[in-house]
Amino acid sequence: MVRVISVDAHRETVTGLLGNAPVIRLPLASAAGLVLAEDVLAGVSLPPFDNSAMDGYAVRAADVASADEAPVTLPVADDIPAGRVDIGELEPGTAHRIMTGAPLPPGADAVVMVEHTDGGVTDVRILRTAVPGAHIRRLGEDVVEGTVALSAGTVLGPAQLGLAAAVGLADVPVRRPLKVLVVSTGTELVDAPNPLRHGQIYESNSIMLASAIRALGCEAEVVRSVVDDVAEFRAVIEPRLADVDLLVTSGGVSAGAYEVVKDALTGQGVEFRKVAMQPGGPQGCGRWNGVPVVTLPGNPVSVLVSFEAFLRPALLAALGHAGVDRRQVRARLTESMTSPAGRRQFRRGFYTHSEGEVTGIVGPRGGPGSHLLAAFTQANCLIVLPEDVDSVDQGDEVDVLLL
Ligand code: AMP
Ligand code: MG
């Protein structure tokens, strides 16, 4: 007898199987979307020195205090473009022309923006007064050297990577993207653009899985179309295990004959079970030669729903993400639906929420059939009908997972 287990129990098993990815340092350019594994400290303050926030003139505020009543003319004693590193003192009664981001000369306590001057290069007419501190960006105003710039668990998006670069990091400690081997099984599968013969279909699971895996920040290698032959499956896949962190298969795990994955991996450390869900009931997981294995059924919709239910949360957790769940909302159904008793049903749906409404509305896209991939492309959510529900009416509130 095949064991029947709950969706939650299988999800927990798969998450435990994957565990935490090891920590490595990656160059910033390779770390986008990954999760910081340790706090990183600022090697420098930001800004690293007092500098000008404007193109203009560095002055002593006292020297231009009367400029609102009558323009003040000062000799321009120096010119400071951004990047100058040999900065001299600003003598009283003089101005230094200064550009945005250039270091403020010692002695200056304000910047007059160029728009409030005549823009002169030997002498400058200052037309407005400036309060002390005007248009100066202070050392350490943004980040103080030695403090935590980014804390462990931070997802490295553009702003976070920018800050890491700004405080002087070339690489960051992250959880390493897992390398996943994606294998489609089925003698009927053909790779486009080869022509189909009657009885054959184009292989579509591997691109779905690989793209879904890559979208999380992991790496995916693909073996398309292994035929339903145990010896062949072992011969093709076993040698490739050494290079990967996870094997994900599709097809060949149900109750029929010619179930190549089940036949090849039963007794090898992989357990096959029935999960109380629709679609996606037949599932398996375990280790083969020590490498984690997750085996999915073959129907394309089952593959994507299984990815959502098990692999997505497990991979996100392995990468160190704190939030691994899709956002869940309640919505009113636009039509009645039935669901098999004792199984959690995931239906593809389209959710909308108009402004001012308390709950949104959701309608199914396609029927429950796990081969209806076209309907999935019209969906933006999964409607979840719990195990203890066998029918829901139009207008009922249901749980919706937003994709
Ligand atoms: P299986 O789980 O191997 O019995 O496959 C279930 C259904 O999914 C069958 O109709 C298969 O032809 C189909 N199927 C399995 N693998 C793929 C694949 N990689 N691409 C498209 N359809 C598939
Ligand atoms: Mg098959």
UniProtKB/TrEMBL annotation:
Gene Ontology biological process terms in this record: Mo-molybdopterin cofactor biosynthetic process
EC code: 2.10.1.1
Key word NAD present: no
Keyword Mitochondrion: no
SUPFAM superfamilies tied to this protein: MoeA C-terminal domain-like (SSF63867), MoeA N-terminal region -like (SSF63882), Molybdenum cofactor biosynthesis proteins (SSF53218)
Catalysis performed (reactions): adenylyl-molybdopterin + molybdate = Mo-molybdopterin + AMP + H(+)
Entry GO terms, CC: cytosol
GO molecular function terms noted in the UniProt entry: metal ion binding; molybdopterin molybdotransferase activity
Cofactor(s) this protein requires: Mg(2+)
UniProt keyword terms in alphabetical order: Magnesium, Metal-binding, Molybdenum, Molybdenum cofactor biosynthesis, Transferase
MoaB/Mog domain boundaries: 181-317
Pathway assignment: Cofactor biosynthesis; molybdopterin biosynthesis
InterPro entries reported for this sequence: MoaB/Mog-like_dom_sf, MoaB/Mog_dom, MoeA-like, MoeA_C_domain_IV, MoeA_C_domain_IV_sf, MoeA_linker/N, MoeA_linker/N_sf
Family note: Belongs to the MoeA family.
Summary of the function given for this chain in its UniProt record: Catalyzes the insertion of molybdate into adenylated molybdopterin with the concomitant release of AMP.
Protein name, per record: Molybdopterin molybdenumtransferase
Protein source organism: Amycolatopsis regifaucium
